[in-house]
Specification:
Blueprint lengths: L5 H4 L10 H4 L12 H8 L9 H5 L6 H9 L3 H9 L5 H7 L3 H4 L12 H14 L15 E5 L3 H12 L3 E5 L8 H5 L7 H13 L3 E3 L10 H7 L2 E4 L5 E2 L12 E3 H12 L14 E5 L3 H12 L4 E5 L26 H4 L3 E3 L2 E8 L5 E14 L2 E6 L5 E4 L2 E4 L3 E3 L5 H5 L21 E3 L2 H4 L4 H21 L1
Parallel strand pairs: 1-2, 1-4, 2-3, 4-16, 6-14, 7-8, 7-14, 8-9
Antiparallel strand pairs: 5-15, 10-11, 11-12, 11-13
Length: 471
Protein backbone atom coordinates (compact mmCIF):
# COMPACT_ATOMS: atom_id res chain seq x y z
CA UNK A 1 0.00 0.00 0.00
CA UNK A 2 1.19 3.52 -0.85
CA UNK A 3 0.54 6.20 1.75
CA UNK A 4 -0.59 4.57 4.98
CA UNK A 5 -1.89 7.78 6.54
CA UNK A 6 -3.20 9.43 3.37
CA UNK A 7 -6.79 9.34 4.56
CA UNK A 8 -5.75 11.31 7.66
CA UNK A 9 -3.70 13.91 5.84
CA UNK A 10 -5.85 14.77 2.84
CA UNK A 11 -9.46 15.78 2.33
CA UNK A 12 -11.75 14.64 -0.46
CA UNK A 13 -11.37 16.91 -3.49
CA UNK A 14 -13.05 16.79 -6.89
CA UNK A 15 -12.72 18.89 -10.05
CA UNK A 16 -14.47 22.24 -9.91
CA UNK A 17 -17.44 22.73 -12.21
CA UNK A 18 -17.70 25.62 -14.63
CA UNK A 19 -19.80 28.63 -13.69
CA UNK A 20 -23.50 27.62 -14.03
CA UNK A 21 -24.37 30.93 -15.70
CA UNK A 22 -21.76 30.27 -18.39
CA UNK A 23 -22.07 26.52 -18.83
CA UNK A 24 -25.80 26.58 -19.63
CA UNK A 25 -24.84 28.34 -22.86
CA UNK A 26 -23.29 25.14 -24.23
CA UNK A 27 -23.52 21.35 -24.05
CA UNK A 28 -19.93 20.63 -23.06
CA UNK A 29 -19.06 18.60 -19.97
CA UNK A 30 -19.28 20.85 -16.94
CA UNK A 31 -16.04 20.04 -15.08
CA UNK A 32 -12.74 21.89 -15.30
CA UNK A 33 -9.42 20.13 -15.76
CA UNK A 34 -8.00 18.49 -12.65
CA UNK A 35 -4.22 18.00 -12.39
CA UNK A 36 -3.16 14.36 -12.36
CA UNK A 37 -1.06 15.06 -9.26
CA UNK A 38 -4.24 15.91 -7.37
CA UNK A 39 -5.77 12.62 -8.47
CA UNK A 40 -2.65 10.86 -7.16
CA UNK A 41 -3.27 12.56 -3.80
CA UNK A 42 -6.89 11.44 -3.84
CA UNK A 43 -5.82 7.85 -4.51
CA UNK A 44 -3.51 8.03 -1.51
CA UNK A 45 -6.57 8.38 0.74
CA UNK A 46 -7.53 4.74 0.06
CA UNK A 47 -7.01 2.73 3.25
CA UNK A 48 -6.51 -0.68 1.59
CA UNK A 49 -9.16 -2.09 3.92
CA UNK A 50 -9.00 -5.69 5.10
CA UNK A 51 -12.46 -6.16 3.58
CA UNK A 52 -12.85 -3.77 0.63
CA UNK A 53 -16.60 -3.15 0.72
CA UNK A 54 -16.17 -0.80 -2.24
CA UNK A 55 -15.59 -3.85 -4.44
CA UNK A 56 -18.79 -5.54 -3.30
CA UNK A 57 -20.63 -2.26 -3.81
CA UNK A 58 -19.46 -2.16 -7.43
CA UNK A 59 -21.53 -4.37 -9.78
CA UNK A 60 -18.38 -4.96 -11.84
CA UNK A 61 -16.34 -5.84 -8.74
CA UNK A 62 -13.56 -3.49 -9.86
CA UNK A 63 -10.34 -4.05 -7.89
CA UNK A 64 -10.49 -0.56 -6.43
CA UNK A 65 -7.76 -0.75 -3.74
CA UNK A 66 -5.29 -2.13 -6.27
CA UNK A 67 -5.86 0.53 -8.92
CA UNK A 68 -5.83 3.24 -6.24
CA UNK A 69 -2.42 2.01 -5.10
CA UNK A 70 -1.18 1.97 -8.70
CA UNK A 71 -2.37 5.55 -9.20
CA UNK A 72 -0.71 6.65 -5.96
CA UNK A 73 2.55 5.18 -7.27
CA UNK A 74 1.86 6.84 -10.66
CA UNK A 75 2.07 3.47 -12.38
CA UNK A 76 -0.63 4.30 -14.91
CA UNK A 77 0.04 1.23 -17.04
CA UNK A 78 -0.65 -1.04 -14.08
CA UNK A 79 -3.73 0.98 -13.11
CA UNK A 80 -5.10 0.64 -16.63
CA UNK A 81 -4.42 -3.10 -16.70
CA UNK A 82 -6.20 -3.61 -13.36
CA UNK A 83 -9.24 -1.59 -14.42
CA UNK A 84 -9.54 -3.23 -17.84
CA UNK A 85 -9.74 -6.66 -16.22
CA UNK A 86 -13.25 -5.93 -14.96
CA UNK A 87 -14.56 -2.84 -16.78
CA UNK A 88 -14.86 -2.56 -20.55
CA UNK A 89 -15.75 1.12 -20.52
CA UNK A 90 -14.25 3.06 -17.58
CA UNK A 91 -14.48 6.27 -19.61
CA UNK A 92 -18.29 5.89 -19.43
CA UNK A 93 -18.67 4.78 -15.82
CA UNK A 94 -16.10 7.37 -14.71
CA UNK A 95 -18.48 10.04 -15.98
CA UNK A 96 -22.04 8.83 -15.45
CA UNK A 97 -22.05 6.10 -12.82
CA UNK A 98 -23.69 7.09 -9.50
CA UNK A 99 -20.77 5.26 -7.87
CA UNK A 100 -22.34 2.69 -5.53
CA UNK A 101 -18.74 1.79 -4.70
CA UNK A 102 -18.35 5.14 -2.95
CA UNK A 103 -21.48 4.50 -0.90
CA UNK A 104 -19.78 1.34 0.42
CA UNK A 105 -16.35 2.90 1.01
CA UNK A 106 -15.20 2.11 4.56
CA UNK A 107 -13.74 5.60 4.95
CA UNK A 108 -17.27 6.89 4.40
CA UNK A 109 -18.30 5.68 7.86
CA UNK A 110 -16.95 8.85 9.43
CA UNK A 111 -15.14 10.79 6.68
CA UNK A 112 -15.82 11.81 3.08
CA UNK A 113 -15.32 8.70 0.95
CA UNK A 114 -12.63 8.10 -1.68
CA UNK A 115 -13.23 9.80 -5.07
CA UNK A 116 -13.39 6.41 -6.79
CA UNK A 117 -15.44 7.50 -9.80
CA UNK A 118 -13.12 10.41 -10.60
CA UNK A 119 -10.03 8.21 -10.20
CA UNK A 120 -11.57 5.70 -12.60
CA UNK A 121 -12.21 8.42 -15.19
CA UNK A 122 -8.64 9.67 -14.81
CA UNK A 123 -7.22 6.19 -15.35
CA UNK A 124 -9.33 5.82 -18.51
CA UNK A 125 -8.21 9.15 -19.92
CA UNK A 126 -4.58 8.39 -19.06
CA UNK A 127 -4.98 5.14 -20.99
CA UNK A 128 -5.85 7.09 -24.13
CA UNK A 129 -3.23 9.76 -23.49
CA UNK A 130 -0.45 7.18 -23.13
CA UNK A 131 -1.63 5.02 -26.04
CA UNK A 132 -2.68 2.17 -23.77
CA UNK A 133 -6.27 2.11 -24.96
CA UNK A 134 -5.98 0.96 -28.54
CA UNK A 135 -7.28 -1.68 -30.88
CA UNK A 136 -6.25 -5.22 -29.93
CA UNK A 137 -8.04 -7.59 -32.31
CA UNK A 138 -8.07 -11.33 -31.52
CA UNK A 139 -5.28 -13.34 -33.08
CA UNK A 140 -7.61 -16.18 -34.09
CA UNK A 141 -11.28 -16.37 -35.08
CA UNK A 142 -13.49 -19.24 -33.99
CA UNK A 143 -15.67 -19.19 -37.08
CA UNK A 144 -18.78 -18.56 -34.95
CA UNK A 145 -21.02 -15.57 -35.68
CA UNK A 146 -23.02 -13.63 -33.08
CA UNK A 147 -25.63 -10.92 -33.62
CA UNK A 148 -26.10 -8.42 -30.80
CA UNK A 149 -29.39 -6.51 -30.90
CA UNK A 150 -28.97 -3.07 -29.36
CA UNK A 151 -25.84 -0.98 -28.93
CA UNK A 152 -26.36 0.46 -25.47
CA UNK A 153 -23.86 -0.30 -22.70
CA UNK A 154 -25.07 -3.91 -22.33
CA UNK A 155 -24.87 -4.54 -26.06
CA UNK A 156 -21.45 -2.93 -26.37
CA UNK A 157 -20.07 -4.92 -23.43
CA UNK A 158 -21.48 -8.15 -24.85
CA UNK A 159 -20.00 -7.43 -28.27
CA UNK A 160 -16.63 -6.43 -26.83
CA UNK A 161 -16.28 -9.57 -24.74
CA UNK A 162 -17.40 -11.96 -27.47
CA UNK A 163 -15.14 -10.30 -30.03
CA UNK A 164 -12.18 -10.65 -27.66
CA UNK A 165 -13.03 -14.39 -27.47
CA UNK A 166 -12.53 -14.62 -31.21
CA UNK A 167 -16.15 -14.79 -32.34
CA UNK A 168 -17.32 -12.65 -35.23
CA UNK A 169 -19.75 -10.08 -33.84
CA UNK A 170 -22.24 -7.84 -35.61
CA UNK A 171 -24.26 -5.25 -33.67
CA UNK A 172 -27.65 -4.04 -34.90
CA UNK A 173 -28.81 -0.60 -33.73
CA UNK A 174 -32.22 0.82 -34.63
CA UNK A 175 -31.11 4.43 -34.37
CA UNK A 176 -28.82 6.52 -36.57
CA UNK A 177 -25.75 6.22 -34.31
CA UNK A 178 -24.24 3.59 -32.04
CA UNK A 179 -24.55 3.93 -28.27
CA UNK A 180 -28.18 3.51 -27.28
CA UNK A 181 -28.79 5.25 -23.95
CA UNK A 182 -25.22 6.56 -23.96
CA UNK A 183 -25.79 8.27 -27.29
CA UNK A 184 -29.37 9.48 -27.18
CA UNK A 185 -30.49 9.29 -23.55
CA UNK A 186 -27.73 11.06 -21.63
CA UNK A 187 -27.13 14.77 -22.38
CA UNK A 188 -23.76 15.87 -23.71
CA UNK A 189 -23.10 18.03 -20.65
CA UNK A 190 -22.80 14.74 -18.73
CA UNK A 191 -21.26 12.59 -21.49
CA UNK A 192 -19.98 14.19 -24.67
CA UNK A 193 -20.54 11.91 -27.62
CA UNK A 194 -16.94 11.95 -28.83
CA UNK A 195 -16.25 9.81 -25.77
CA UNK A 196 -18.64 7.16 -27.07
CA UNK A 197 -17.44 7.45 -30.67
CA UNK A 198 -13.81 7.12 -29.62
CA UNK A 199 -14.52 3.78 -27.96
CA UNK A 200 -16.78 2.50 -30.71
CA UNK A 201 -14.09 3.29 -33.30
CA UNK A 202 -11.64 1.07 -31.39
CA UNK A 203 -14.20 -1.73 -31.40
CA UNK A 204 -14.59 -1.32 -35.16
CA UNK A 205 -10.80 -1.58 -35.58
CA UNK A 206 -10.93 -4.78 -33.52
CA UNK A 207 -13.42 -6.29 -35.96
CA UNK A 208 -16.87 -5.59 -34.50
CA UNK A 209 -19.33 -4.68 -37.27
CA UNK A 210 -22.05 -2.12 -36.52
CA UNK A 211 -25.30 -1.74 -38.45
CA UNK A 212 -27.24 1.47 -37.73
CA UNK A 213 -30.82 2.28 -38.77
CA UNK A 214 -31.36 -1.46 -38.39
CA UNK A 215 -34.47 -2.06 -36.28
CA UNK A 216 -34.65 -5.79 -35.73
CA UNK A 217 -38.29 -6.81 -35.75
CA UNK A 218 -39.19 -4.05 -38.20
CA UNK A 219 -36.83 -3.32 -41.10
CA UNK A 220 -34.55 -6.24 -40.17
CA UNK A 221 -36.12 -9.70 -39.86
CA UNK A 222 -35.25 -11.34 -36.54
CA UNK A 223 -35.84 -14.84 -37.85
CA UNK A 224 -33.40 -14.30 -40.71
CA UNK A 225 -30.78 -13.21 -38.18
CA UNK A 226 -31.48 -16.33 -36.13
CA UNK A 227 -30.93 -18.45 -39.22
CA UNK A 228 -27.74 -16.65 -40.29
CA UNK A 229 -25.98 -16.41 -36.92
CA UNK A 230 -24.86 -19.01 -34.41
CA UNK A 231 -26.25 -16.96 -31.50
CA UNK A 232 -28.32 -13.83 -30.90
CA UNK A 233 -28.11 -11.59 -27.82
CA UNK A 234 -31.04 -9.26 -27.11
CA UNK A 235 -29.86 -6.05 -25.45
CA UNK A 236 -32.68 -3.70 -26.41
CA UNK A 237 -33.13 -2.07 -23.01
CA UNK A 238 -36.21 -1.20 -20.97
CA UNK A 239 -37.76 1.39 -23.24
CA UNK A 240 -41.47 1.56 -22.34
CA UNK A 241 -41.83 4.61 -20.06
CA UNK A 242 -44.15 4.80 -17.07
CA UNK A 243 -47.15 6.94 -18.05
CA UNK A 244 -49.37 9.25 -16.01
CA UNK A 245 -53.00 8.51 -17.02
CA UNK A 246 -54.75 11.54 -15.55
CA UNK A 247 -57.16 14.07 -17.12
CA UNK A 248 -55.43 16.16 -19.78
CA UNK A 249 -52.67 13.62 -20.53
CA UNK A 250 -53.49 13.95 -24.25
CA UNK A 251 -52.83 17.69 -24.38
CA UNK A 252 -50.14 19.20 -26.58
CA UNK A 253 -47.02 19.88 -24.54
CA UNK A 254 -47.17 16.76 -22.36
CA UNK A 255 -44.25 14.51 -23.32
CA UNK A 256 -42.27 11.58 -22.08
CA UNK A 257 -38.82 12.72 -20.98
CA UNK A 258 -36.99 10.71 -23.63
CA UNK A 259 -38.94 12.40 -26.41
CA UNK A 260 -37.34 15.64 -25.25
CA UNK A 261 -33.84 14.36 -24.45
CA UNK A 262 -33.39 12.15 -27.51
CA UNK A 263 -34.32 14.90 -29.95
CA UNK A 264 -32.03 17.37 -28.21
CA UNK A 265 -29.11 14.93 -28.35
CA UNK A 266 -29.69 14.49 -32.08
CA UNK A 267 -29.62 18.24 -32.61
CA UNK A 268 -26.34 18.53 -30.67
CA UNK A 269 -24.95 15.77 -32.91
CA UNK A 270 -25.86 17.83 -35.98
CA UNK A 271 -28.89 15.86 -37.06
CA UNK A 272 -31.99 17.53 -38.45
CA UNK A 273 -35.02 17.02 -36.20
CA UNK A 274 -38.41 18.00 -37.55
CA UNK A 275 -40.35 17.50 -34.31
CA UNK A 276 -37.91 19.28 -32.01
CA UNK A 277 -39.29 20.26 -28.60
CA UNK A 278 -38.16 23.70 -27.45
CA UNK A 279 -38.37 24.84 -23.81
CA UNK A 280 -37.31 28.39 -24.59
CA UNK A 281 -39.35 30.99 -22.74
CA UNK A 282 -41.70 28.37 -21.29
CA UNK A 283 -42.74 27.25 -17.84
CA UNK A 284 -41.41 23.71 -17.53
CA UNK A 285 -42.71 21.04 -15.16
CA UNK A 286 -40.64 17.88 -14.76
CA UNK A 287 -42.54 15.05 -13.08
CA UNK A 288 -40.10 12.62 -11.48
CA UNK A 289 -37.15 13.28 -9.19
CA UNK A 290 -34.50 10.92 -10.62
CA UNK A 291 -31.58 11.32 -13.01
CA UNK A 292 -33.76 11.46 -16.13
CA UNK A 293 -35.78 14.27 -14.59
CA UNK A 294 -32.56 16.05 -13.68
CA UNK A 295 -31.42 15.75 -17.30
CA UNK A 296 -34.65 17.42 -18.40
CA UNK A 297 -33.93 20.24 -15.95
CA UNK A 298 -30.43 20.82 -17.30
CA UNK A 299 -31.59 20.68 -20.91
CA UNK A 300 -34.48 23.08 -20.23
CA UNK A 301 -32.06 25.55 -18.65
CA UNK A 302 -29.91 25.41 -21.76
CA UNK A 303 -33.01 26.18 -23.82
CA UNK A 304 -33.50 29.34 -21.70
CA UNK A 305 -36.75 28.20 -20.13
CA UNK A 306 -38.76 30.82 -18.25
CA UNK A 307 -39.01 28.59 -15.18
CA UNK A 308 -38.21 24.98 -14.31
CA UNK A 309 -39.97 23.05 -11.55
CA UNK A 310 -39.30 19.40 -10.69
CA UNK A 311 -41.91 17.57 -8.63
CA UNK A 312 -41.65 14.19 -6.94
CA UNK A 313 -44.24 11.91 -5.34
CA UNK A 314 -41.88 10.71 -2.61
CA UNK A 315 -40.95 12.77 0.47
CA UNK A 316 -37.77 14.82 0.70
CA UNK A 317 -34.86 12.46 1.45
CA UNK A 318 -32.76 13.12 4.57
CA UNK A 319 -29.47 14.98 4.21
CA UNK A 320 -27.55 12.18 5.95
CA UNK A 321 -27.98 8.47 6.63
CA UNK A 322 -30.71 7.40 9.01
CA UNK A 323 -30.58 4.46 11.41
CA UNK A 324 -32.66 2.46 8.91
CA UNK A 325 -30.06 3.09 6.17
CA UNK A 326 -26.68 2.17 7.69
CA UNK A 327 -23.34 1.86 5.93
CA UNK A 328 -22.50 0.01 3.66
CA UNK A 329 -25.98 0.24 2.10
CA UNK A 330 -26.48 2.73 -0.70
CA UNK A 331 -27.11 6.06 1.09
CA UNK A 332 -30.71 7.14 0.51
CA UNK A 333 -30.01 10.84 0.98
CA UNK A 334 -30.88 14.08 -0.74
CA UNK A 335 -28.76 14.73 -3.81
CA UNK A 336 -28.58 17.83 -5.93
CA UNK A 337 -27.19 17.44 -9.42
CA UNK A 338 -25.33 19.98 -11.52
CA UNK A 339 -28.63 20.64 -13.31
CA UNK A 340 -30.27 21.72 -10.06
CA UNK A 341 -27.40 24.14 -9.44
CA UNK A 342 -28.22 25.80 -12.74
CA UNK A 343 -31.72 26.75 -11.64
CA UNK A 344 -34.70 24.67 -10.55
CA UNK A 345 -37.52 24.69 -8.01
CA UNK A 346 -37.90 21.26 -6.40
CA UNK A 347 -41.07 20.12 -4.66
CA UNK A 348 -41.56 16.82 -2.81
CA UNK A 349 -44.60 14.81 -1.65
CA UNK A 350 -46.63 16.05 -4.59
CA UNK A 351 -49.29 14.19 -6.57
CA UNK A 352 -50.30 15.46 -10.00
CA UNK A 353 -54.08 15.54 -10.40
CA UNK A 354 -54.69 17.03 -13.84
CA UNK A 355 -53.16 18.72 -16.87
CA UNK A 356 -55.19 21.88 -17.57
CA UNK A 357 -55.83 23.01 -21.15
CA UNK A 358 -56.00 26.37 -22.84
CA UNK A 359 -58.56 27.03 -25.57
CA UNK A 360 -56.27 25.53 -28.25
CA UNK A 361 -55.67 22.11 -26.72
CA UNK A 362 -52.28 22.98 -25.22
CA UNK A 363 -51.34 22.44 -21.62
CA UNK A 364 -51.26 25.71 -19.67
CA UNK A 365 -51.09 24.49 -16.05
CA UNK A 366 -51.06 21.43 -13.84
CA UNK A 367 -53.18 20.80 -10.77
CA UNK A 368 -51.21 19.33 -7.89
CA UNK A 369 -51.94 18.31 -4.31
CA UNK A 370 -49.55 17.91 -1.41
CA UNK A 371 -49.52 14.51 0.29
CA UNK A 372 -48.45 13.11 3.62
CA UNK A 373 -46.67 9.77 3.88
CA UNK A 374 -47.29 7.29 6.69
CA UNK A 375 -46.80 3.59 7.52
CA UNK A 376 -49.60 1.09 7.99
CA UNK A 377 -48.99 -2.59 8.70
CA UNK A 378 -45.44 -2.20 7.42
CA UNK A 379 -46.56 -0.64 4.15
CA UNK A 380 -45.82 2.87 3.03
CA UNK A 381 -48.93 4.84 2.12
CA UNK A 382 -49.91 8.45 1.59
CA UNK A 383 -52.95 10.66 2.02
CA UNK A 384 -53.80 13.97 0.44
CA UNK A 385 -53.51 17.06 2.59
CA UNK A 386 -56.85 18.82 2.63
CA UNK A 387 -56.81 22.33 1.19
CA UNK A 388 -53.37 21.93 -0.42
CA UNK A 389 -54.53 21.62 -4.04
CA UNK A 390 -53.16 24.35 -6.30
CA UNK A 391 -52.15 25.05 -9.87
CA UNK A 392 -48.71 25.61 -11.34
CA UNK A 393 -48.19 27.32 -14.71
CA UNK A 394 -47.03 24.77 -17.26
CA UNK A 395 -46.29 25.19 -20.96
CA UNK A 396 -44.38 21.90 -21.22
CA UNK A 397 -44.56 18.85 -18.95
CA UNK A 398 -41.98 16.08 -19.07
CA UNK A 399 -42.83 12.68 -17.59
CA UNK A 400 -39.65 11.26 -16.06
CA UNK A 401 -41.01 8.52 -13.84
CA UNK A 402 -38.88 5.64 -14.99
CA UNK A 403 -39.34 2.74 -17.38
CA UNK A 404 -41.47 -0.38 -17.11
CA UNK A 405 -40.13 -3.07 -19.47
CA UNK A 406 -38.96 -3.69 -23.05
CA UNK A 407 -41.26 -3.24 -26.03
CA UNK A 408 -43.22 -6.42 -26.66
CA UNK A 409 -43.92 -5.77 -30.33
CA UNK A 410 -41.10 -6.13 -32.82
CA UNK A 411 -38.22 -8.48 -32.14
CA UNK A 412 -39.65 -10.17 -29.01
CA UNK A 413 -42.93 -11.00 -30.75
CA UNK A 414 -41.22 -11.96 -33.97
CA UNK A 415 -38.88 -14.42 -32.27
CA UNK A 416 -41.45 -15.75 -29.79
CA UNK A 417 -39.53 -14.62 -26.70
CA UNK A 418 -41.27 -15.18 -23.36
CA UNK A 419 -41.53 -12.42 -20.78
CA UNK A 420 -41.98 -12.73 -17.02
CA UNK A 421 -44.52 -11.23 -14.63
CA UNK A 422 -42.60 -7.95 -14.58
CA UNK A 423 -42.70 -7.73 -18.35
CA UNK A 424 -38.96 -8.31 -18.81
CA UNK A 425 -37.46 -11.04 -20.97
CA UNK A 426 -37.70 -14.36 -19.14
CA UNK A 427 -34.39 -16.16 -18.91
CA UNK A 428 -32.30 -18.81 -17.23
CA UNK A 429 -28.67 -17.70 -16.92
CA UNK A 430 -29.18 -15.17 -19.73
CA UNK A 431 -30.72 -17.81 -22.02
CA UNK A 432 -34.22 -17.13 -23.33
CA UNK A 433 -36.84 -19.78 -24.05
CA UNK A 434 -35.70 -19.90 -27.70
CA UNK A 435 -32.63 -21.92 -28.59
CA UNK A 436 -29.43 -19.91 -29.21
CA UNK A 437 -31.07 -16.62 -28.24
CA UNK A 438 -29.73 -14.85 -25.13
CA UNK A 439 -30.49 -11.56 -23.40
CA UNK A 440 -28.74 -8.99 -21.21
CA UNK A 441 -29.14 -5.55 -19.67
CA UNK A 442 -32.30 -3.67 -18.79
CA UNK A 443 -34.29 -5.86 -21.17
CA UNK A 444 -33.56 -8.76 -18.80
CA UNK A 445 -33.22 -7.21 -15.32
CA UNK A 446 -35.36 -4.09 -15.69
CA UNK A 447 -34.39 -0.44 -15.54
CA UNK A 448 -31.01 -0.10 -13.87
CA UNK A 449 -27.61 1.60 -13.94
CA UNK A 450 -25.05 1.80 -16.75
CA UNK A 451 -22.58 -0.09 -14.59
CA UNK A 452 -25.11 -2.91 -14.19
CA UNK A 453 -25.66 -2.96 -17.95
CA UNK A 454 -21.94 -3.50 -18.51
CA UNK A 455 -21.95 -6.27 -15.90
CA UNK A 456 -24.93 -7.86 -17.64
CA UNK A 457 -23.19 -7.77 -21.00
CA UNK A 458 -20.07 -9.38 -19.61
CA UNK A 459 -22.00 -12.16 -17.87
CA UNK A 460 -24.17 -12.85 -20.92
CA UNK A 461 -21.04 -13.06 -23.08
CA UNK A 462 -19.70 -15.81 -20.81
CA UNK A 463 -22.85 -17.86 -21.34
CA UNK A 464 -22.83 -17.28 -25.10
CA UNK A 465 -19.15 -18.21 -25.33
CA UNK A 466 -19.75 -21.42 -23.39
CA UNK A 467 -22.70 -22.25 -25.66
CA UNK A 468 -20.65 -21.65 -28.84
CA UNK A 469 -17.71 -23.61 -27.52
CA UNK A 470 -19.92 -26.66 -26.97
CA UNK A 471 -21.42 -26.56 -30.46
Amino acid sequence: MGKIDGFLLFDRELPESRNPVKRIKDYKEIYKDFPAKKTVTQASRCMDCGVPFCMSGCPLENNIPEFNDAVYNEDWTLAVDILKETNNFPEFTGRICPAPCEGSCVLGINKPQITIEHIEKTIAEKAYELGLMKADPPLKRTGKKVAVIGSGPAGLATADQLNKSGHTVEVFERDSHVGGLLRFGIPDFKLEKWVVERRVNIMKEEGVVFHTNSHVGKNVDGNKLANNFDALVLCGGSTVPRDLPIPGRELNGVHFAMEFLTRQNKVVSGEKVNDFISAEGKNIIVIGGGDTGSDCVGTSNRHKAKSVTQIELLPTPPTSRTIENPWPEWPMILRSSSSHEEGCTREWSIITEEFIADDKGNVKAIKITEIEWYSENGQRKFKKIEGSTRELPCDLAFLAMGFLYPEKEGVLAQLGIDTNERGNVDDANYKTNVDKIFTAGDMRRGQSLVVWAIREGREAAKEVDAYLTQM
